[in-house]
Amino acid sequence: MAKVKVSDFIADWLYKRGITDVFMLSGGGAIHLDEAISKHEGIRGVCIKNEATGPMMAEAYARTKGGFGVVYVTTGPGGANAVTGVTECYVDSSPVLVISGQSPINQTTKNANIPNLRSFGIQELNIIDVVKSITKYAVMITIPESILYELEKAISVATSGRMGPVWLDIPLDIQSAYVEEDNLFGFSTNKKFTDKISEDLNNAKRPLILAGQGIKNSDAVSELKRLASCLECPIILSRLGLDCLPYSNVNNMGLGGIKGTKFNKLIMGEADVVIAIGTSLSVAFAGYDLSFFNPNAKIYMVDIELAEITKVQHRLSGVVIKDAQDFLRGLLNILYAFPIRYSAERKNWFEHCLKYKEKLSTKLFVKEQNPIDIYFVAKKIDEMSKKGDILVDDAGSSYYVAGQTFSFENGVKEITSGAYASMGLSIPLSIGAAIADPKVCILTMTGDGSLETNIQELKTLSYYKLNVKLFIINNGGYISMRDHGRHVEDENTMLNIKKVADAYDIPYYLIDDYKNFDTIAAKFKDVYGPAIIEIICDSEQKLILPIC
Amino acid sequence: MAKVKVSDFIADWLYKRGITDVFMLSGGGAIHLDEAISKHEGIRGVCIKNEATGPMMAEAYARTKGGFGVVYVTTGPGGANAVTGVTECYVDSSPVLVISGQSPINQTTKNANIPNLRSFGIQELNIIDVVKSITKYAVMITIPESILYELEKAISVATSGRMGPVWLDIPLDIQSAYVEEDNLFGFSTNKKFTDKISEDLNNAKRPLILAGQGIKNSDAVSELKRLASCLECPIILSRLGLDCLPYSNVNNMGLGGIKGTKFNKLIMGEADVVIAIGTSLSVAFAGYDLSFFNPNAKIYMVDIELAEITKVQHRLSGVVIKDAQDFLRGLLNILYAFPIRYSAERKNWFEHCLKYKEKLSTKLFVKEQNPIDIYFVAKKIDEMSKKGDILVDDAGSSYYVAGQTFSFENGVKEITSGAYASMGLSIPLSIGAAIADPKVCILTMTGDGSLETNIQELKTLSYYKLNVKLFIINNGGYISMRDHGRHVEDENTMLNIKKVADAYDIPYYLIDDYKNFDTIAAKFKDVYGPAIIEIICDSEQKLILPIC
Predict the structure, then answer these.
(1) Residues of B431-444 as b/e, b for ≥16 C-beta within 10 angstroms?
(2) In whole angstroms, what is the distance from residue B289 CA to residue B277 CA?
(3) Which of A183, B104, B307, B330 has the fewest CB atoms lying closer than 10 Å?
(4) Do A436 and A60 form a contact (C-beta atoms < 8 A)?
(5) CB contact under 8 A, A453 and B49
(6) What does the radius of gyration of chain A's CA atoms come to, in whole angstroms?
(7) Can the peptide bond before residue A371 be classed as cis, meaning omega within 30 degrees of 0?
């Protein structure tokens, strides 16, 4: 019977599940794992510079390619560095598997089981204790034969229900063990759903649909469109659901929440029946205790995660714990069998919303001026994007402005952060997306402050010649943070972006006059490969705030 | 009675405990904390670029200045980023207080207590669950009046016994609360020691002292020297204890362990009575299960951490759980009262050790050649260092070579990593030391691979004009890792260091011929401020390995 080394078994199992790239920063504690990737003909090990960014890259890889993303790290600081990215995957529900190397079992603090022992083997840390609260599943493997079970379980947990990161910690002596393939035991999941169906939309006068990332994750965009046109009602989107419909879709009212469109809170406040599908109804999107809605509004919430529902359950009129597509198909079947009756009030309401959209859309407020308006930059990037392109944005003003301005026509997609908007996220997200699909063009908008946080990865961008156009808003730094108490010393803290581009061998373009935008963009937009475009923007930039 | 805002109370309490600099990356969730630092006249907020490096800087601050170091971070990703540095402080026993901002109490997942809820308020994460296994004490503050108790407890825990990091998570509504100072309640520690005294050195034929960081932490260097001269025996030092004695001290045999001096394992293997003081006897230093010693040797271990003793207890002949200075003073009192008797065997043993030192010291093996030998670089840096200077080194070959070569004459100190040697550590350590004591010169040795990991902090180095000379070993990257399975794609991954120095406005010097070292060093060594010195070294560099 064939014997196989555990580390090779893992690599092959991942490859059979569609993994062709693993984000890795190798080290002695993961030597067998790393070698298995290195010698596997179907998998490329993408060498990164700091493990912190690995899960972010894998997150974007999974979102770009489907399935899940994989990160390999080593013991101790390797795993600790990755915590930053894992929390991102956790709060944004991204299916990422982190595999860490570990000291041999008899040199682990976990195995020694001595209270207060901090580190035992070389660079040893009990990483599972650190990550268990920020992963869906995290375990140290101690039996070589359990490897199939643990891989299947980890990926099943990561990709089913509400997605999220998982972590397998594999000691050196497990990595290097040989197992008989026939002795491996597997895992099979039972998907259980608690179903509850309740709808009465016939009496609604001012219905509203809120839609989030769950729509995309369950492939329910066409069902969403059918429901909205059937009800003739507005849709407001969450940050991670924003690219599921083009802004030109008649029902789409754009982004909701504290940094949403100028008119989103008016619609939220006026609606009398709200159905939220595939969104966690976060504080930033819907207010604490759903305070952005009329206190008398009936609110229904459809989500696959009980916890997100429970946090606001006292304010809800009905709950469905279900996959968005399953729910929408069921609801549409009912509405086809018993069509919704005509209502003049509902018709007036929709026309009223359309007028808001006509008069208050962001693009009407874009200024053509110098120093350049950030909204002008976002509008230009939006217009430049073509079918298949991916838009990426970073924390701070570029995050807010992008959400209010991008229109996602022609199937343009966005990869961004939902719950956190961590500074510096845009570079690893761009790299992950470009690695997953080298054919697409990534148009990335970041600030001069965010740039610094993960500036080390510019080398990864440059080395792999990734097709990422990095638009850097130079407005004297940290503009969105000044009002929130970010303390920067003075303007000398600012980098010379041209010199940085030169140091990393990335072509550099400067746009300091809005009138030259198109001329300069013509020089780089159809040239494959990375580019840095510094844009001198208004340090007194005001953000568009929703009317309440 | 005077009312005081909690965030101002904290700043003032820290100031009264000697804190004049707080390493911070501010954000909306820590706004009151940040403002209190900003407006406090005695404390400077040092603005860093990535929270990952904050605890490393605070660690070096504490080690340079005494007392403890403080880091302020914000909610969610702010805290998550800091995990990297906190694990360093944990495994290396550094007293650092991290204070994080948090969402208002009623928007925290901890308070909501709903299983599986991942994030509630804006950028909210239950950071305490993440860090509790890598801190000595970690708690979210929920009662404003408990602030004094929690600060006193945290610092007492961090700085007493075996030192380590502590974490206070402070929700926005606690930060901004006003309290009556008279209503605050405090904390007082009871130091309990389990004492056990046992020594019989009179019968030893080949005694050996192992000494570690505990000697420095308990201010017991003079007691150590007295014991060694009293016994006429060799001392071998751990990595973090290495700078407690100059190499010229007659008893000092230099660094022990797998990357120690060429002769350290010979001495360890021959000794018959070993006293280890203030060292955890890690696997890298003493072997798994203390395998570097003769199986018949009697080994006594003196440490303040029960856990470190317990992990090897079955191999020990005696244990003392005590502060190193307390132990040494007690032992010396006994030896003064009952002087050790003359032994020809012991005298021969010491002379035998002195011959090893005479014939096998690292400096005898330094090559004068091109491409330059890394040991030559370390020797030059060592010779360049003057009283008060601080040496810093990074992971990989510079870490190993420095430990084998630096001699710490004239009170030169070293700040480096013990248990981990995380890549990229040297830049934040250098910054922290320079911020703590701007008068000293920091001589830092790093590799071209390690440089990239925290390259973003070169801006901090440059902006604050810190007196750090950063020697970058250019040997084609990751040399110490190639044999351990680090997979680098090819030489194009290497940065152009001159351009990087230019981008960060740091003076740059190139040394590509060993004969020019002194001439070029003369240009920067007495010029205050940062400098980058790129040194073209041998990509085929061999490390000196201990003889077994």
Answers:
(1) bbbbbbeeebbbbb
(2) 17
(3) A183
(4) yes
(5) yes
(6) 24
(7) yes
| Euclidean distance between CA atoms B348 and A317, whole angstroms | 89
pTM value is: 0.84
Residue A190, token pair as written in the block: 């039972």
**Domain A364-536 coded CATH 3.40.50.970:** yes
Q: CA of A246, closest CA in chain B: separation in Å? A: 27
Task: Look at A26 and B50 and tell me if their CB atoms are within 8 Å.
Answer: no
Q: Do the domains B3-183 and B363-536 sit in the same CATH topology, yes or no?
A: yes
What CA–CA distance (Å, rounded) separates A537 from A473?
Answer: 6
Decide: B437 and B463 in contact? Cβ < 8 Å.
Answer: no
Instruction: Name the token pair of B134.
Output: 């890598």
CATH 3.40.50.970 fits B363-536, yes or no: yes
Task: Name the helix (H) or strand (E) containing A366.
Answer: none
- Contact between B239 and B173 (Cβ < 8 Å): no
Mutation target for A interface from B51, B303, B420: give the one with most A CBs within 10 A: B420
Across the A/B interface, how many CB contacts are shorter than 8 Å? Answer: 249
The ipTM assigned to this model is: 0.80
Other Cβ atoms less than 10 A from the Cβ of B474: the count is 21
End-to-end CA distance of chain B: 70
The two tokens of residue B531 are 């400098």
Structure tokens at B120: 């509630």
d(CA B281, CA B311): 10
Residues of A in contact with B426 (CB under 8 A): none
Whether the CB-CB separation of B338 and B201 falls below 8 Å is answered with no
Q: Which two tokens stand for residue B169?
A: 């998570």
Indicate the residue of A77, A112, A422 with minimum beta-carbon distance to B77.
Answer: A422
Instruction: Give the CATH superfamily of A207-360.
Output: TPP-binding domain (3.40.50.1220)
Contacts of B59 (CB under 8 A, 6+ apart): B69, B85, B88, B89, B92, B94, B96, B429, B432
10 Å CB burial of residue A13 (0-12, 13-18, 19+) is middle
- β pairing state of B298-303 and B273-277: parallel
Kind and range of the H or E run holding A382: helix A374-384
Tokens 């996602």 found at: A408
User: DSSP characters for A498-521?
Assistant: HHHHHHTT--EEEE-SGGGHHHHH
| Element containing residue A224 per DSSP (H, E) | helix A221-231
Classify B3-183 by CATH class.
Answer: alpha beta
Q: Which residue of A has its CA nearest to B164?
A: A118
Is A130 within 8 Å of B126 when comparing Cβ atoms? no
| Annotated domain spans of chain A | 3-183, 207-360, 364-536
**Rounded Cα–Cα distance for residues A254 and B253 (Å):** 71
Amino acid at B471: F
Q: What share of chain A is helix, strand, coil (3-state, %, to 5)?
A: 45, 15, 40
One digit per residue, pLDDT tens: chain A, 548 residues? 589 999 999 999 999 999 999 999 999 999 999 999 999 999 999 998 899 999 999 998 998 888 999 999 999 999 999 999 999 899 888 999 999 999 999 999 998 888 888 899 998 999 999 999 999 999 999 888 889 889 988 998 999 878 899 999 999 999 999 998 876 766 643 333 223 334 567 789 999 999 999 999 889 999 999 999 988 999 999 999 999 999 999 999 999 999 999 999 999 999 999 999 999 999 999 999 999 999 999 998 888 877 788 788 788 887 777 789 988 988 888 888 778 888 899 999 999 999 999 999 999 999 999 999 999 999 999 999 999 999 999 988 999 999 999 999 989 999 998 878 788 889 999 999 999 899 999 999 999 989 999 999 999 999 999 999 999 999 876 554 455 455 555 556 678 999 999 999 999 999 999 999 999 999 999 999 999 999 999 988 999 999 98
